[in-house]
Amino acid sequence: MASINDTRIREILTMSPTVAVLGIHHEPEKAAFYVPEYLHDEGYKIIGVNPQFVGETLFGEPVRATLAEIGVPIDIVDVFRRPDAIPAHVEDILAMKPRPKVVWFQLGIKNEDAARTLEAAGITVVQNRCTLADHQRLGLGAPEKK
Q1: Confidence of residue 2 (pLDDT cuts 50, 70, 90)
Q2: Which residues pair with 108 in a beta bridge?
Q3: For 68-79, what is the mean pLDDT?
């Protein structure tokens, strides 16, 4: 497994304007809502994927049921799913055309088998890290408006 350092995290976050959020939610208190909301506010295009919320629009985009329905190139698949649910999504990720550059498992989410499979296909995998926290920690956010 490739080690991901801050230089690589900075590169990923600055060179990845389009993010598919697997497991997006519409309740503001859930991380699967407020993390993509933060990224959207920072200028990222957010495309939500959650079959429960098809028909809703979040962050200016209709929520999709599956990754395959997106139809535009995705830089990061940001995963908000339990670790035991990850294997069911690996095939969908590998079937994306073009494939995403990065699959990012949010804080608390790790699946070594899935990560190995994705990395073998040329996809960078980040595990057990928060895109919002890393974005802020690395000072990538817009300056606070006074």
Answers
A1: low
A2: none
A3: 95
